[in-house]
Backbone:
């Protein structure tokens, strides 16, 4: 009985920390205090997105990930992909059972498929390592390994978020626009190139002339960049055509040259289609780029010797990145509380839809996750580290990613309903995650 109580307390403490910081963020966003208003959240989001998150992910991966550890962690990307696929299938069932309206279908699938693989594991895992009832051994070793695991989880989750979930919601939004006979609103944020990853939240849309001018300059800049890339390929193609003509006059290799010109032309159109469909600018968000840099530094021995460790010549770079990264978690959690305030003021959503999403994320997915991870352990796909298994299980019990709110803004569908869904799912997360975290620790310990 004492052991169970210790596990419960160890699971409860990190969740309480999240709740307290979230409550502070909500208070700061109220009209009376108005410190984290819409404009303030926008600027803090940008700083977190471009500076704090990449520094946190990159520094932790560089410090704790090596080539040997990457070989051991290969199952984690597959596990995260399974959570997305199974979650989206369950979301489709929720749509069928609740008969959700067309404009909510993409939102339901997104909330069921994508969990918050960003800041919540970064808070929960290190906090559990410090608790007395933790089954993961020495606190410092546990924290170091845990940060490596959750950093990889955040990086992989960001990639799947902006490839799999984004395109699923985009397909549903296109179907809604076709049924209603309207054009999709497209990307309507102030800066459509910012992917506002799992740690970032919806920004308030503004119709002021200043914001419209900023949007126009960004769109013009993107168009000019695409035109420059197209002109480069066109110049290469024209040059090869001239060379091909001259060679043809001489009877030398003309078919090969013409084929190369056709290949470049097809490659140009193919790359444009891939870039437009997959939104590569979002896939390679700053956090993802930070993760790639961290992987390279951690895996390549010369880079690691120069940058990582107190005796490294350039260890000040690592120290600076760590210092910046430490600001990410409290800052993002404050913004979560500030943005959830919108859900308190809205109620335009079917209760059955909210209940269905809650059941999927806090009941069905965790149960399936236990079976999947246990089968993987039995088959030898996952090594015996209890902390690693705990992180894999935790990925099935997280609330919906805050990214979903940003995607509803991008497509102009379900923004109000999203605020309500996020409010209730995050409010209930305090209970669900405490219980599941305690159970997972008992299971692996």
Residues:
């Amino acid at each position: 009985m004492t052991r169970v109580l210790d596990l419960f307390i160890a699971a409860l403490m990190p969740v309480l920390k999240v709740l307290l910081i979230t409550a502070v963020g909500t208070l700061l966003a109220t009209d009376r205090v108005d410190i984290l208003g819409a404009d303030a959240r926008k600027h803090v989001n940008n700083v977190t997105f471009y500076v704090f998150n990449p520094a946190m992910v990159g520094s932790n991966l560089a410090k704790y990930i090596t080539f040997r550890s990457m070989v051991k962690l290969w199952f984690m990307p597959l596990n995260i992909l399974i959570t997305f696929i199974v979650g989206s299938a369950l979301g489709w069932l929720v749509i069928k059972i609740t008969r959700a309206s067309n404009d909510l279908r993409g939102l339901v699938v997104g909330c069921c498929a994508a969990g918050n693989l960003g800041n919540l594991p970064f808070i929960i895992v290190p906090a559990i390592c410090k608790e007395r009832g933790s089954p993961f051994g020495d606190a410092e070793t546990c924290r170091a390994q845990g940060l490596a695991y959750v950093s990889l989880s955040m990086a992989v989750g960001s990639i799947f978020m902006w490839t799999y979930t984004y395109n699923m919601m985009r397909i549903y939004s296109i179907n809604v626009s076709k049924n209603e006979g309207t054009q999709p609103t497209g990307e309507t944020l102030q800066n459509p190139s910012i992917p506002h990853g799992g740690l970032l939240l919806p920004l308030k849309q503004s119709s002021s002339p200043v914001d419209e001018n900023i949007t126009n300059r960004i769109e013009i800049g993107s168009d000019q960049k695409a035109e420059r890339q197209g002109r480069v390929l066109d110049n290469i193609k024209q040059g090869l055509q001239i060379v091909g003509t001259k060679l043809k006059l001489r009877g030398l290799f003309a078919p090969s040259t013409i084929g190369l010109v056709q290949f470049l032309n097809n490659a140009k159109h193919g790359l444009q289609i891939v870039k437009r469909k997959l939104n590569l600018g979002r896939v390679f968000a700053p956090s993802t780029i930070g993760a790639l840099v961290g992987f390279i530094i951690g895996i390549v021995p010369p880079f690691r010797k120069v940058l990582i460790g107190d005796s490294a010549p350039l260890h000040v770079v690592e120290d600076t990145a760590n210092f910046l990264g430490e600001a990410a978690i409290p800052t993002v959690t404050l913004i979560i509380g500030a943005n959830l305030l919108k859900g308190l003021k809205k109620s335009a959503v079917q209760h059955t839809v909210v209940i269905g999403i809650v059941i999927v994320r806090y009941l069905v997915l965790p149960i399936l996750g236990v079976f999947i991870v246990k089968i993987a352990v039995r088959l030898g796909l996952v090594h015996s580290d209890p902390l690693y298994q705990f992180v894999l299980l935790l990925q099935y019990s997280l609330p919906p990613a805050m990214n979903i709110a940003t995607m509803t803004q991008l497509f102009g569908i379900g923004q109000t309903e999203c605020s309500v869904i996020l409010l209730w799912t995050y409010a209930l997360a305090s209970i669900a995650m405490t219980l599941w975290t305690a159970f997972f620790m008992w299971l692996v310990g």
Observations:
- The two ends are 15 Å apart (CA to CA).
- The chain has 18 helices and no strands.
